[in-house]
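Bug #2210: token dump truncated for Heme exporter protein B?
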Amino acid sequence: MRVLLKGILQRDLTLAFRQKSELMQPLMFLLVVVTLFPLGIGPGPDTLQRIGPGVIWVAAILSSLLGMERLFRDDFADGSLEQMQLSGIPLYQIALCKIITHWFVSFMPLLMLSPLLALFLNLTLPMYTALLLTLLLGTPVISLIGAIAVGLTTGLQRGSLLLALLLIPIFIPLLIFATSAVESAAMQLPYGPQIAIIAAIMLLALALSPFAVSYALKVSQN
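Reproduced locally. Full output below:
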């Protein structure tokens, strides 16, 4: 079973990196948003420092929605998803493999570019540290919760619009706690409570999301 799961993970990563245009689209969207915000509101260092964390988080959420629909779309279209269900591997484990792939493809480039974005937005070292912690703990929540909505909308035409309507309100608390942590760091205040809340949300999502995705896929295929 481990060999099959490893094969699914390798297959998804290989397919993701072969589709370079779809792979680069969320990253380019994120870079465009982060670049245009300073041009729209002015290049003042204090202004950039104040809005920077929120801009990065909003861009991360919106860019993830661009590639979220692909999570199960292709496998559903070519029948691979049905074959995976018949393989004997628990569907929640397959869902977890695909969620890991989505996080790696969508958010690992963001984490790698975060020092450059922090420099561009004039973030201090404490602010960047808080931002990095929120991204490390918060971006898996986007993939985990987003996968549930994708499972429910798999097979629907124009499901991307419904996906955005479902997910954006759910991600607002995550956005609030993440930006609050960075603001506390900017004022040299402790931001441990915000990080703890984000970590708790991530652990809860990690525990429940694969099973919820499994159920959602079964419902959407019936």
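Output looks complete on our side. The chain has a mean pLDDT of 81. Marking as cannot-reproduce; reopen if the truncation happens again.
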